[in-house]
Amino acid sequence: MTPRWQSNNMMAAVGHSAQDESAREIFVFGPFRLDASQRRIERDGSPLQLSGRAFEILLALVRQAGNVVSKTDLIAKTWPGADVEDNSLRVHIAALRKILGDGNGGARYLSTVSGQGYCFVAAVSRPDQRQSAPINPTYHHNLPAHPRHMVGREQAIQDISDKLRAQRFVTVVGPGGIGKTTVVVSTGHALLAEFAGHVHFVGLGETDNAALVPAIVASSFGLLARSNDPTSGLATFLSDKRMLLILDCCEHVIEAAAALAERLHQAAPELHIVATSRELLRVEGEFTYRLAPLPSPPEKAALKAATAIAYPSVKLFVERATAGGGEFALTDANASDVGNLCRRLDGIPLAIELTACHVGTYGARAMVQLLDQHLNLLWEGRRTALPRHRTLRATIEWSYNLLSEPERVVLGRLSVFVGSMTLDAARSVAAATEDDDTILAIIDGLVAKSMLALNTGSQPTRYRLADSTRAYAQEKLAASGDASAISRRHAGYFLGLLEKITGESDRNLSMAADEFANVRAALTWCFSDQGDRRAGVALAAASIPLFFKRSLLAECELWVTRAIEALDETNGSIRHGLVLHTALGATRMLTGQLDELGAKHLSRALELTEKIGDIPGQIRLIDQLHLLQLFVGKYDDALGTARRGEAIALAGNDSAAVARMRVLLSISCQYLGKFVASRSYIEAAMLHPGLEGDIHSGLTLEYPKRAQITFARILWLQGHPDQATQMVRRAISDVIAANHPVMFCRALPWAFDVFFWNGDMDDCEEHIDRFIVEARGHNLAILQMVGEAMKGITLLARNEIGTGLALLRGAIEKLQSRSFGAVAGLRTPLAEALAAADHCDEALDTIDQAIAQARHCNFMMDMPDMLRTKAEVLMHQRNPDLSQAELSLVQALDLARHQGALGYELRAAVGLARLWQRQGRRQEAHDMLAPVYQQFTEGFQTRGLKMAGQLLAELTPQRSCSLAAR
Length: 966
Description:
The protein is 60% helix and 6% strand. By secondary structure, it is an alpha/beta fold. Helix 13 runs parallel beside helix 16 (364-373), helix 25 crosses helix 27 (574-590) and helix 28 runs antiparallel to helix 29 (615-631). It is elongated and about 120 Å long. GO terms for molecular function: DNA binding. Pfam families: HTH_77, Trans_reg_C. InterPro entries: HTH_77, OmpR/PhoB-type_DNA-bd, P-loop_NTPase, Sig_transdc_resp-reg_C-effctor, TPR-like_helical_dom_sf, WH-like_DNA-bd_sf.
């Protein structure tokens, strides 16, 4: 790829003198010309108006073109010292996109990189650099040919050039295959004019004899015959010359190369040196440039082709995959797989090139699976490449052979880690007989030699092996015969870590989430044929809070099931059995397996808690049994379970547990239609200040603000719609702020009814799509179906009858097949929609099924509304059955009054008043509806009360209409 300052866009700068241009920092991209010193941007010669901050943002992005600039950095540059939120940055980015015409006619300038920041993706040229060399230079140099397929290194070349101008001596450091040679050769070509063609390249990769290094460099200048001391002769020859000397591939002759470079740097004040090495030369005058991997898409990024190609690693992959007439094409369908490949290859250009060459044969998805199974270290690259670059194995082997024996041993041991590791983890697992100081020195050496990457930006500092290096080192570890012992030590370390944080703060659990890949790897080994099942049982039990924290319930079920199977053969402890049976019952329930097996595991866990006198454990299990009974429609049993929990909490003198059990009692009473008792329980529960004290512990199925949402429902049912709405909005905001998918998916359906009852679907519709995605992503099968039902109801509320009906009907059928108990309540909006669509026979069958099912399991919470809905269906028929409709409405009215459900009483009263109005019984209708309406003190802007007020106005004689005017 041609460096940006040599691109064909140079014609955009015509009309500005070369002398003026060279004195200023100017960028050209598309039809735009940006002058940093003049703070001016033009489009086709016409100035554009940009705010000062928008200009600063654009300038920062253009200077880093092709690289991702974090939001934090952009905010720091644009609002130095100010506390500014991301929204302000997004506003200016949006303004820039509009002014630049981003997206118009296929033009692309700014790309949002999810979870990272923003990237300037258009080609940028620098007129000052471009015009400093004649069009057809005639310089004599020995540089290799200019790399034609370099991607994403423009800024690196610029940075190295700047360092060379300022410091004279730069060592470009990085692991094998990162592209050091390509970058320094390109830098040499870019600086030819600046050094009047005096750029000299010496490749040291072909010699194994360090003693010959001075002679090799001297002979490249034709000096060998002139002196018996090559180093002195070189120093004398270069002492008065202004030149750029490139010493490539120094790591295997590091001592000799370092000594020579230091001597030449001191002897020749006009000599500039750039060296490449997998470790620093560590000499006086040396400055470091660590060449970073090519930016790759973040993990789990949902990519389209247009966004993926903005990442240099993906761009390189596509170029190499299509080179030579390959049939591969980047599409929206394979963009995420390609992004995953590039990330898995650590953004290392050589690894990407070697892998991309085979994508036409296997396909991107299959190659991801191949990487999962084992990284192919033998795929070959160009025949003309240096031997050390023809395969990944050769590249890694080159570096491996430069390590000392202790470094090789420790590298093999570190290959047991998946992803990154802390220093403490690395020391604990890699140390056998070595003392701490020795291990630290070895780890530092591996970092220095670019075999182990160091991320100083994390807290604590973390280390990581590139996947290709790890695969190679694993082979060496296996050949050593120590793999089993190291894997056992690895599993033991993470078992100790998890046991240490069990029961500690949610913050510590969040920190442990960084270790998840290693915990998973340790579990895999423990339950393998070569593993340690006893350790696996303990590790599975200890990792359950981590799985719940990450909402990975299906995977949690897998490991817990294996651990329970191994309990007997390993004589596992009661406490291990307790947490394993608890977790299995909970995960089966939340993933939609509403069967006796889940209840059996919860009951077994409850027996174990009673056996050891663990009252908090009993309370958690009561909570889970209660939820399972609600899911399967055993509402009377759920009330009994809640009462059992209250008795246990009272006997244990645990006031917080008593409060939690009273929340369950309130919920049970709601399902049973006992609203007065429900309010009494929830008000008592909310008096306890520590009600939500342990919500974030790993095994709980509670969620923030469960009590408040329960209370909000009671408030609406008892005739306080405004208070209910305000409370439920605040509660859902708090749940979302907790950033826990399972908790969010537990909370929203319980809150949804308040929005639905008030007719305020807009208030929660924005959350439902996220709810469905989270439930699907975390395998929460039952909750996903409930989410689809909620989505169907919202579509029906917007009069999207066809789509809404299909979605709601399908969700109900799936829930019914899973024996979900509360499905009766979802049939009510379905029946109303069917009737509105003139499918009255189906509507009547639907509401009759709902009423029968509700009566069978004593689901009385929605019974008044079911009876009202049946009346509405009967009145909507082609031959209305008004007498049966009136009977249903009277029953609904009486039941709502008996339950103390003023909200439902109003709905039934409105329906009955309309029926009597239709029959000419206006006064009866008025006298029945008015007292119900008068009981309300708020909510007069809600749909239900507006409707009642309008109906009363129609029924009220002109002389006494003051009531309806409220």
